[in-house]
Design goal:
Blueprint (H helix, E strand, L loop, with lengths): L2 H13 L14 H11 L21 H6 L1 H11 L1 H19 L6 H25 L1 H4 L4 H52 L21 H13 L5 H12 L4 H29 L1 H19 L6 H28 L6 H10 L2 H17 L12 H25 L8
Helix pairs in contact: 1-6, 2-6, 2-8, 4-5, 4-6, 5-6, 5-8, 8-11, 8-13, 9-13, 9-16, 10-11, 11-12, 11-13, 12-13, 12-16, 13-14, 15-16
């Protein structure tokens, strides 16, 4: 995405009573789940408020957060997880509150909902991924799954709450209310975080990790997978409308998608521990590809759309659990934070241009003005094709680690 252009488009949609770009996603043990809820709750809410301008369906604030992933690791190593989480929540909450005063200003929204929220999200997501590695080893997948399950619950609830708030109090106060909730609940949770160890001297970047062919393959797989993550939730309302379903049904499909991502997070964690994180990651990307290539192109009615929502939602949620677990499992606990952060930073390009590419494909076919699923198929096949290529790279990484098919990896 061209950030300035995208933000301009997003503001236009916002002033038209749409909140397509409202994704302000926001890490020790039980309290980690609460911070994960705040970080991920709005990640999947944008699609509930469908916009006629499909090119604006971009999670703007996600990309800065991912891009600063490595810097966040370094910062949390210096100040600790507790102070890092407090700083992240503060940035996230204050930015949301202030965004309520800048809904008609491109620069303000870019600086607040883009950069400032992105920085806060980066800190929280880093802590969310790295702190469990200090407490768990054999059950790391289950721990990650439970933590991110909290985010899935938040996404499901907030998708509905945000829509209701917009209708009743308007977009500016929706930003402010969500910001105040973030501050009042997130800071107490952040203060409860506790580290077992702190590796102050850990390197900022370890390019030597890419000498490991398995890690390199998984890195590429995750980077490609990131292109496809937000295509379904952002365009489901448009597709629902094009096949004759109401806007309420479209919003319900997105809410259902979010609920299924929560299920995917919860189920994939123990599955990682049982059959291995890399095997689970492979299944995740295959499920994503199959659902987009074999089901979504033919989902011209509610039952088929519902089947797609369930399968792709589960795969989508599983991605956020399995991928960090795979990266952490390849290296020692001391090196795992850098391994995960490097991999997550690799998502940046996919977050930046993944949904916009789908949006431009939809615009090129004037799909949003048609009453058929056919014009959406180029965008669907683009997303499904990338998911399939991602699965191939996971398979390459898996075979680099272990060639025995039934081996736990």
């Amino acid at each position: 995405m061209s950030t300035s252009t995208t933000t301009t488009t997003a503001v236009t949609a916002t002033t038209e009573h749409e909140l397509q770009d409202y994704s302000h996603s926001s890490a020790t043990e039980p309290d980690d789940r609460h911070l994960q809820t705040e970080q991920l709750d709005a990640l999947n809410t944008g699609g509930v408020q469908d916009s006629d301008n499909v090119a604006s369906a971009i999670p703007d604030d996600q990309s800065p957060g991912l891009a600063f992933g490595l810097a966040s690791v370094r910062l949390t190593r210096l100040v600790g997880a507790r102070l890092g989480a407090v700083a992240g929540v503060t940035l996230l909450g204050v930015a949301q509150v202030l965004s309520g005063f800048t809904t008609s200003q491109v620069g303000g929204l870019f600086g607040l909902s883009g950069v400032m929220v992105g920085l806060g999200m980066s800190l929280l997501y880093t802590i969310n991924n790295t702190l469990p590695t200090q407490y768990f080893s054999s059950k790391l997948g289950t721990a990650n799954g439970l933590i991110k399950f909290g985010g899935g619950i938040g996404a499901t609830v907030l998708a509905i709450v945000v829509e209701l708030l917009i209708e009743r109090v308007g977009i500016p106060w929706t930003f402010r209310i969500i910001g105040f909730i973030t501050l009042s609940t997130g800071i107490p949770a952040a203060l409860l975080l506790k580290e077992r160890t702190r590796g102050r001297n850990a390197p900022f970047l370890e390019l030597a990790m890419f000498r490991n062919p398995a890690y390199t393959a998984v890195f590429i797989a995750a980077a490609l997978g990131a292109f496809t993550l937000f295509t379904p939730p952002y365009f489901l309302p448009l597709i629902a409308r094009s096949v004759g379903l109401s806007s309420t049904t479209g919003a319900g499909l997105v809410a259902g998608f979010n609920a299924c991502t929560a299920i995917g997070r919860l189920v994939s964690g123990p599955t990682c521990d049982r059959i291995g994180p890399t095997n689970t990651f492979l299944i995740t990307m295959l499920l994503s590809a199959v659902s987009m290539l074999a089901i979504w192109p033919f989902s011209s009615n509610l039952p088929l759309l519902a089947v797609f929502v369930v399968l792709n939602g589960i795969a989508n949620g599983s991605f956020f659990v399995t991928m960090p677990t795979v990266a952490a499992a390849m290296f020692s606990p001391e090196r795992a934070p850098v391994a995960m952060s490097q991999a997550v930073t690799g998502w940046t390009v996919g977050y930046l241009v993944g949904p916009p590419i789908a949006g431009y494909l939809i615009q090129a076919t004037a799909a949003e003005s048609k009453s058929s699923l056919d014009p959406y198929r180029p965008a669907i096949f683009y997303a499904g094709g990338l998911a399939l290529v991602s699965a191939v790279f996971v398979l390459i990484g898996r075979m680099a680690m272990e060639r025995k098919v039934l081996k736990r990896v």
